[in-house]
């Protein structure tokens, strides 16, 4: 169902979700740095309609949350972007590899640690030398969070509550599953529409599995666009490409819809369009697809949370119906072709 503020351009979302085999979607639209509409459609679980109060698994939209906590700590001079994390934290699996001493927060938040996305059964090992190449890595975010814990002497969940969730009024958000929560998290569904088990998270993951409502995440997105809690020097680093992605994702026929540059910033993929930079991130887990983007210049943005393997199918539709940036839509369409 949609709440009273839901965008009038999304009247047929229930039908669209059914036709695209997506169980539910929750959306928050941002214009000029303010939330102007929210809505939820479809089913959050068997016999349970999705509402704007339903939290969703954020999947990799967790990473920007983690980055924001760490950057606020850097701004408060509690952490450093460029000191070796090894001074405070080293993963036991890397104890015999001297390359661990090169790892920094900057590398972790821009996916340049040389670590894989996730460790395998043999443990954690470098795929590449740190700082030499770009490789998407959830392990890098975990590393940075553990460094933050050791450097500050506080748990990462405590740090996140103090430095992000409380000041951003994200009351329906967290890294760990809430016990007895009033609004249960949306049940994940596979591409055939079969419900999957809901994973109860008892230990934080800095790169995955955090939960939030679309409205809560939109509050965070506005904070990030406004550089709330960041000193100017850290905000400038967050807004700058730390790892060039243009050659990899804008090759061949995709070049026509690409911006002049795109790269990883600190926590976000950045799209360097003429007139402004867009901060973008997506997330995908079994039974979840999520999307968030905001134009730093205009303050226009959107959060889309779904509980389906097919959730990616509704992203362009929702962007088009909400009047989102045509340049962003063209870029995404080009990436899907």
Descriptive account of the structure:
By secondary structure, the protein is of the alpha+beta class. The chain is 28% helix and 18% strand. The chain has ten helices and eleven strands. A nine-stranded antiparallel sheet has the order 3-2-1-11-10-9-8-7-6, with helices on both faces. It has a two-stranded antiparallel ribbon with strand order 4-5. A hairpin with a 5-residue loop joins strand 10 and strand 11 (301-306). Helix 2 (62-75) runs parallel beside helix 4 (138-152) and helix 2 packs across helix 5. The two termini are 32 Å apart. Residues 1-8 have low confidence and may be disordered.
Describe the secondary-structure layout.
Layout: H1 13-20, E1 24-31, E2 34-45, E3 48-49, E4 56-57, H2 62-75, H3 105-109, H4 138-152, H5 156-165, E5 211-212, H6 214-225, H7 232-238, E6 243-244, H8 246-249, E7 261-264, E8 269-273, E9 276-285, E10 288-295, E11 301-306, H9 315-321, H10 326-336
Antiparallel strand pairs: 1-2, 1-11, 2-3, 4-5, 6-7, 7-8, 8-9, 9-10, 10-11
Taken as a percent bin, the fraction of beta residues is 15-25%
The strand count comes to 11
Major β-sheet annotation: 9 strands, antiparallel
Could you list the spans in which at least 5 consecutive residues all have pLDDT below 50? 1-8
Strand order of the largest sheet: 3-2-1-11-10-9-8-7-6
How far apart the termini lie comes to: 32 Å
Give the overall silhouette: globular
Helical content (DSSP H or I, runs of 4+): 25-40%
Q: What string, H for helix and E for strand, traces the elements in order?
A: HEEEEHHHHEHHEHEEEEEHH
């Amino acid at each position: 169902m949609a709440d009273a503020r839901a965008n009038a351009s999304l009247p047929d979302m229930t039908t669209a979700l059914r036709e695209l085999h997506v169980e539910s979607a929750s959306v928050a639209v941002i214009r000029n740095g303010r939330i102007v509409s929210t809505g939820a459609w479809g089913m959050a679980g068997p016999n349970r309609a999705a509402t704007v109060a339903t939290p969703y698994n954020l999947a990799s939209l967790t990473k920007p949350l983690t980055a924001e906590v760490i950057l606020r700590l850097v701004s408060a001079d509690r952490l450093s972007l460029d000191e070796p994390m090894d001074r405070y934290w080293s993963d036991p699996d890397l104890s015999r590899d001297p390359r661990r001493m090169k790892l920094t927060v900057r590398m972790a938040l821009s996916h340049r640690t040389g670590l894989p996305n996730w460790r395998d059964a043999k443990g954690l090992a470098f795929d590449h030398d740190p700082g030499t190449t770009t490789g998407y890595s959830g392990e890098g975010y975990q590393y940075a969070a553990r460094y933050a814990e050791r450097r500050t002497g506080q748990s990462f969940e405590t740090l996140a509550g103090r430095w992000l969730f409380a000041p951003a009024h994200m009351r329906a958000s967290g890294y760990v599953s809430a016990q007895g929560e009033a609004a249960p998290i949306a049940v994940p569904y596979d591409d055939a529409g079969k419900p999957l088990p809901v994973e109860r998270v008892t230990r934080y993951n800095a790169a995955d599995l955090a939960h939030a409502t679309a409205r809560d995440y939109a509050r965070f997105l506005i904070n990030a666009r406004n550089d709330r809690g960041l000193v100017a020097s850290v905000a400038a680093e967050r807004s700058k490409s730390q790892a060039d992605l243009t050659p990899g994702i804008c090759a061949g026929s995709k070049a026509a819809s690409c911006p002049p540059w795109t790269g990883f910033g600190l926590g976000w993929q950045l799209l360097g369009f003429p007139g402004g930079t867009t901060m973008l991130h997506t997330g995908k887990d079994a039974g979840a697809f999520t999307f968030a983007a905001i134009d730093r210049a205009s303050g226009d943005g959107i959060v889309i949370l779904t509980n389906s393997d097919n959730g990616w199918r509704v992203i362009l539709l929702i962007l088009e119906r909400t009047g989102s940036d045509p340049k962003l839509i063209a870029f995404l369409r080009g990436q899907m072709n």
